């Protein structure tokens, strides 16, 4: 797509991956849609509802975004797990150019984010509930239901 991924994206991602410094990152197009940068680093205390509200806010602005969510969940055996989930958010009501840029830049960005465990793509909030994300994360886990 020709969109450059800024170094700040990889720095923020590595902080979340190695030190769990944020609950989630929001990444998006900036500088006249020529670069992908960090839009938000959410504190560890941020609830899942805030993540959804942020996605909705960008949708209302006519922008798609990417998210990296550091989700904690429990297996049936009561073991706790953490996984990094990459989310591509491109609602159907976005301008066509925005949807095309989000779709065409996704693979390059995803490849650079080494250490993501799962990936989700959503165009409406119902596809990305916390339960949906946990279910995606549990797939392949030993001891899960």
Walk me through the structure.
Residues 1-138 form the ADF-H domain. One of its GO terms (molecular function) is actin binding. This is ADF-H domain-containing protein. There is one protein chain. β4 (65-74) and β5 (80-89) form a beta hairpin. The protein is of the alpha/beta class and 145 residues long. The chain has one domain (4-142): Severin (3-Layer(aba) Sandwich), CATH 3.40.20.10. The chain is globular and about 50 Å long. It has four helices and six strands. The mean pLDDT is 93.
Inertia-based shape? globular
Q: Tell me roughly what share of residues is in helical segments.
A: 25-40%
CATH T-level fold name? Severin
Report the end-to-end length measured between terminal Cα atoms. Answer: 40 Å
Strand order of the largest sheet: 1-3-2-4-5-6
**Which CATH C-level class is it?**
Alpha Beta
CATH architecture: 3-Layer(aba) Sandwich
Under CATH, the homologous superfamily reads Severin
Report the β-strand fraction as a percent range: 25-35%
User: Oligomeric status of the shown chains?
Assistant: single chain
Total count of helical runs of at least 4 residues: 4
pLDDT < 50 stretches: none
- Written as H for each helix and E for each strand, in order along the chain, the element string is EHEEHEEHEH
Keywords: Actin-binding
Protein name: ADF-H domain-containing protein
InterPro entries: ADF-H, ADF-H/Gelsolin-like_dom_sf, ADF/Cofilin
GO molecular function: actin binding
């Amino acid at each position: 797509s020709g969109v450059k991924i800024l170094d700040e994206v990889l720095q923020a991602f590595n902080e979340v991956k190695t030190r769990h410094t944020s609950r989630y990152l929001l990444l998006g197009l900036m500088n006249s849609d020529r670069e992908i940068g960090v839009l938000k680093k959410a504190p560890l205390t941020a609830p899942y509802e805030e993540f959804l509200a942020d996605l909705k806010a960008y949708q209302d602005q006519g922008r798609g975004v990417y998210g990296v969510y550091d989700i904690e969940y429990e297996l049936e055996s009561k073991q706790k797990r953490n996984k990094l989930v990459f989310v591509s958010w491109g609602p159907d009501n976005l301008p066509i150019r925005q949807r095309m840029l989000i779709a065409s830049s996704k693979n390059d960005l995803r490849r650079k984010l080494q250490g993501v465990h799962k990936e989700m793509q959503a165009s409406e909030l119902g596809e990305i509930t916390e339960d949906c994300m946990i279910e995606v994360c549990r797939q392949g886990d030993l001891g899960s239901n």
